[in-house]
Fold each of these.
Amino acid sequence: MSSFLTRYLHGESSIVHVRGSSFGPDPNQPTNTPSWLQDALGAITIAVPFPGATETDLIQDLDLSHIKIDFSPSGHPLISADVVTYLKQPNEFNFDLDITEIDPVVYLYLNYDSLHAFAIVQSDSPCPAQTTKSGDHQLTVKSKIVKAPFQVLPGGQKDFEEFLNRVFYEKKGKVYIRGTSDAQVDSAFGHIAVHDLEFNGVIEIQGMQGLGHPEVTSVSIVRGYQDALEISTTLKIYNPSNAAVNLGDLHMALLYDDHVIGNASIPSLALDAGVDNHLKVSAWLQGNDPYVIDFIGEYISTGIAKLSNVNLTISGNYPNATSSEFLRPLIHNLTLSVPVPPFDKEPLLADCQMNLLSSTVVMSLRNPFPGIVMTINNINASATYDIYEIGNMAANFEDPGEGWKEGPMILPGPICDVQCKGIVIKSEKIPVITKKLGYDAIKRALGGSIVVSVESQVGVMLGNFNLENLRYVQNNITTKVRKGF
């Protein structure tokens, strides 16, 4: 029966063999046919041609939606999608069909007139289906493809790469599908299998448009090593596409001012469709790199004019960026421009005190980074009031010859509960060379305070990570002015 129905739906004629039987349509009804005639008819077999259906386009349309492409496993990518098939029964069918399973083989074509498919999608097992009647001789069949292997066909790599480019960089795109499907059907003839039902269609894809500019929603320093500073961040990336994608684990270069300053690892870069996605990123800034020092200085400083323009670039042009051979060309050319958020922690300098008679200053410092110890080894700074430079100071706390009793300043991390509160550590008295134009402003503030700006070069350790000659700028520092030593 399965073979007969398959041929019928393909419009192919079948030969049906008919012979007599002693069993009538209703065995409970008496028959007037003599037994000898029943025996004679049972011995005769007649071959009768049974024509195929006049309408063979059983599958009117096939629609794939909620597509998910998963590149994270080793081997072939996996595809998941909701499948809706619209069927038109032949007019000769005057009985119900209930399709309980489908087993499609889907070929993907880049363009409508492409001669060859670039990929094939086929589930490892048939997909359960539900059938509803949607009109006269019209059926709607709903199913799901779950993690079906996506295989790029020989000679299809170039079209596949173009398909990925459409998904990732364009606003809209299309991919064309053709194929066949087997089906398990409950019908008036019982449970039967139908094979090789042809279909074709088009998938409308809203592209990811390059993913725009990811937003950094959190930044924290994890640990300072001698050769690297480990940072943990959270990226918010909006995926405007109607397709979800999992690019798997990515290892990418981190650039500042067009120079590589480290690398970033994104475990399982999974982007759901049409929503903001929050991704954990681990980054390592390389040691002994002036661009790393410049970046950190600009990030933590307040008062640098171009602070709002600080950007990092995450680039896939990095060795072993992905383990997926299918993604390598795409990831190699992938760049994400990431604006760095304003530094929202307490500034390094809490306040200062100027002692006129000893021409010294005491700095009140605090470490803004939870979970890591900051060490101030040396500082060379100048202070400005209004437009006037009022003084300079220099201290190398590592040099006992300068008379420092306590050595480098150790700043523990802040205490964090609902909010973080820095632990203020006061420096020893540091000699200051005052400027004539600014000295009058200092004397006028005797017994009170003035608000100054400081620009400095600082030698800092974050854990074991050394930042030498870090440029640090801070405005609006309250400086108390006292007469004593």
Amino acid sequence: MEEVMKEMNYDSKRTPLGNLTTSQIHAGYAALSEIVQLLNSGGKGSALVNACNNFYTKIPHDFGRKTPTIITTLEEIQEKLKMLEALGNINVAMNLMDERMDIDEDPLDKYYKKLKCHLTLLDHSSEEFAIIENCIQTTHGPTHNSYSMTVIDIFSCRRELESASFLNYGNVMLLWHGSRLTNWLGILKEGLQIAPRKELITGSLFGKGIYFADVSSKSANYCKATKKNDEGLLLLCEVSLGQQLCLYENENINLQLPEGYHSVAGIGSIKPSTYHLGVLSTEAKLPGGPLIEENMDCYLKYNEYVVYNPKQVKMR
């Protein structure tokens, strides 16, 4: 955790990981929102410098001897959003591990129970394992050719209460979601979450939501694995897409979907050609390869799917 946050320039000496409160993280979102509003209105100069310094006051950064970076692009906003997400998930993990435990209880057993998330290892010889592994390999995007993926293990995942609260609008798919290793305790404990709604932060391609892909490597890129640390976790989720708003260009949706729609589909030019039923779910379709390219004038290379309500998602 320390290493990842150091890469993001977080100053853990000033505020150790786990000591940053939820209210401080929310204050970070608010400060970042102020920067976004200035960028959107063409603001710069001292106003932007002051807004960035305010963000760095809320969320301590370590720039060494360098001058603190002035945030000027949506890409930089995205990086700071990922930092806030990671800090929130690390807080969940630290709180989980700080709880008192019975001296006779195995720590791993206690932490696992506290997750309230049931993980079951799939047999490598099972049909489900074979299909999922095949879909991972056959939906590896041709432009993501700097690495390959090897499946080590697959776990079935069931979060308590997710099934009961699931909003099924139909058109259910099994889709991929990737994230850094530091986020996974928080994700397993709290589920996939959206940045606080009261803070209007743009920068994500289709607004603040939970993003999924039908191409495995598209999501794997967000795991941030490296040659040195080459293991990552991909999550397969049952996602209720319902009536989709299909977008072919970069259109930011910040407040809410138009009436009658349940999700956004950012349409890409490369997509899966097959779909599997009955894998981990009786209803959801699992996209498989080979990938095919259509001659479409699309902003995206690969499809993206976005929902704006966590209750439309079930981990599988």
Amino acid sequence: MHIVLCSFSYIFVFLVAVEGFELSELGFKKCHLEDEECLLTSFRLALPRFVQGIPEYGVEVMDEMVIDNVKFEITGLKLTLKDARLKGDKDIILDKTKFDTSKKTITVDYHVPLYILTGRYNTDGKILTLPVQGEGDIEIRLQNVVVRSKVNYDLLKKDDKTYIAVKQNSYEFTIGDAHYNLTNLFRGNKELSETTLKFINDNSKDVTLEFGKPVLDVVSKKTFRNVKKFLAKAPLEDITIID
């Protein structure tokens, strides 16, 4: 498993209710925080509506998700994604939820059967031992992406209401399989481009270990921004059963 600090993932996606937007629209029902079965059911009911986006509150559509002008370097490979689109979040399957009030942690396990990333790219550098320089279209298929998200939190009081304040977040992930299609890797040298692409796909697990993390980091950061806007308006008293 690959541990990444700086991701928020989908832990708080469903713990949301703000003025003008009713929980009934999410299909959400109140639960005791440590009732894992109830929380899992509620989260599953809420997910389809949330990923559609709620523009009134600044929540972007999560499927498809726009990833534009993202630059990163992976072991010598400098790659920029332009006007990219990521599909797959609408098919998220939640597997387990746990809200530990004594340790102040929240853990959510989920998996995505298939992520499809399409867009434009340019790159200069190398993948593993192969030099790569080019620009063109890109399509990446990540199959069976399994994620465990964990958040440490504190509780804050404001106007007689209780809010979650995130202290630290991390996630672990594995990717079952991957397939890459990049056109024009060597600026018109079709034979060399096809040879390199075959090498990439023959070694897709090694490549994905390096490439998957930056892509999922971008997804997590976008999710975090969406959720943060809701958490500021979502007191626990309005969304959970507190004894």
Amino acid sequence: MYAQYAKWTKQSVWFVTRMKENAVYHVTKVITDNSKKKAAKGVLKEQFITIGYKDETGKVIRLKLRRIVFNAEDGKTICVYN
């Protein structure tokens, strides 16, 4: 999965996907953080993150992505990154 994201990123392809609840990542920069505001809607957080994964040879690859946490009108919180 992360290898495909790396390929798309290298090709400058924009993509949106849901982040797994158990995903491990490191926040490198916070762009927006409205998560503490009561009844916040829309974009709650926008961050630059790094995710590590091993390629087919076992080499650790660091993938730099943008993570967005969005609170939909129906109250569901959605995490996406590209």
